[in-house]
Specification:
Elements lengths: L7 E5 L12 H13 L4 E4 L11 H15 L5 E4 L5 H13 L4 E5 L8 H13 L5 E5 L1 H4 L5 H7 L5 E6 L4 H11 L4 E4 L5 H6 L4 E4 L6 H12 L3 H10 L1 H6 L7 H9 L16 H12 L6
Parallel strand pairs: 1-2, 1-8, 2-3, 3-4, 4-5, 5-6, 6-7, 7-8
Helix pairs in contact: 1-2, 3-4, 4-6, 9-10, 12-13
């Protein structure tokens, strides 16, 4: 029996920064309220979009703790605690559980990578160390590692491993994953341009960058899918496609933080090595935002 953490649209929430590069917790709290008030079904904190890779350990845990306290059980909080160091991922995951996270998001080990047998050992070791559900995160474009179908089958045997954030971009692979593992693992889209295709195949939601600026619309798109109104969902997917593409015109989360700043939501700059958008790309992003009345 799967322990479903959420259905619908979970936001991969940004981490707003002050001018000095420190975390702007006042604005972070406003962003969390904005998300929940507009229908977001879960908050995913300290993921790629949240710039966790440049956080200190103290910042990482404080962001999770703050999100848990601010959310106050209104929606689930899922904490990104993945690492390419199994021991470190275990420590982060245990701390996230201690401060109240409802679930964990674990990316595949990057840079040093590992074999498929190594993936099983890595994820099972983390899952053994906690008592909350886990979403595996497959994003080979960033990590250089793809989780094989047989590896998913093996990992699904662990009671704490309940879902997958699938961002390979390969819909044929996703179809095979759902066909062979859908009764064991929930599947979420990790790509905003593939929400409807993935959910039409049996996925149950998205972990979304788009939700940072359009939470109500992203929630509605997933709601249509869950209601089997694929035509209405597909219409929204196509309507927002150019904006979605422009949110990834440069490395995430550079464009989405730019978008939020343009909307008057103080987000600061990304921490280096991420760098502010080029003027040409910023103009393309702004034009697509105007098309949806997000800015004037």
């Amino acid at each position: 029996m799967k322990n479903t953490i959420f259905t619908g649209a979970g936001v991969a929430i940004i981490t707003p920064m002050n001018e000095d590069g420190s975390i702007n917790f006042e604005q972070f709290g406003k962003n969390i309220d904005f998300q929940i008030e507009n229908g977001t079904d879960a908050i995913i904190v300290c993921g790629t979009t949240g710039e966790s890779s440049t956080m200190t350990d103290e910042e990482h845990i404080e962001c999770i703790r703050f999100t848990v306290e601010k959310t106050a059980k209104r929606v689930p909080v899922i904490a990104g605690t993945g690492s390419n160091d199994t021991k470190y991922a275990i420590e982060l995951s245990q701390k996230a559980e201690e401060v109240g996270a409802d679930g964990l998001l674990l990316v595949t080990p990057y840079y040093n990578k590992t074999t498929q047998r190594g993936l099983v050992a890595h994820f099972n070791a983390i899952a053994d160390s906690v008592n909350i559900p886990i979403i595996l995160y497959n994003i080979p474009g960033r990590t250089g590692v793809n989780i094989a179908i047989d590896t998913y089958k093996e990992l699904a045997k662990h009671k704490n491993i309940v879902a997958v954030k699938e961002a390979s971009g390969n819909m044929s692979y996703v179809a095979q994953l759902i066909a062979e593992c859908g009764d064991m693992l929930d599947v979420y889209s990790g790509n905003d341009d593939q929400i409807v295709p993935l959910m039409a195949l049996g996925g149950i939601g998205v972990i979304s960058v788009l939700s940072n600026i359009m939470p109500a619309q992203t929630h509605q798109m997933t709601a249509y899918c869950l209601e089997n109104n694929v035509a209405a969902a597909a219409k929204m997917q196509i309507e927002y496609l150019e904006l979605i593409n422009n949110l990834f015109i440069e490395v995430n989360p550079i464009p989405v933080k730019k978008a939020m700043n343009l909307m008057g939501i103080p987000s600061g700059e990304c921490r280096m090595p991420l760098y502010p958008m080029s003027e040409d790309n910023a103009k393309k992003l702004a034009d697509s935002m105007r098309a949806h009345n997000l800015i004037k």
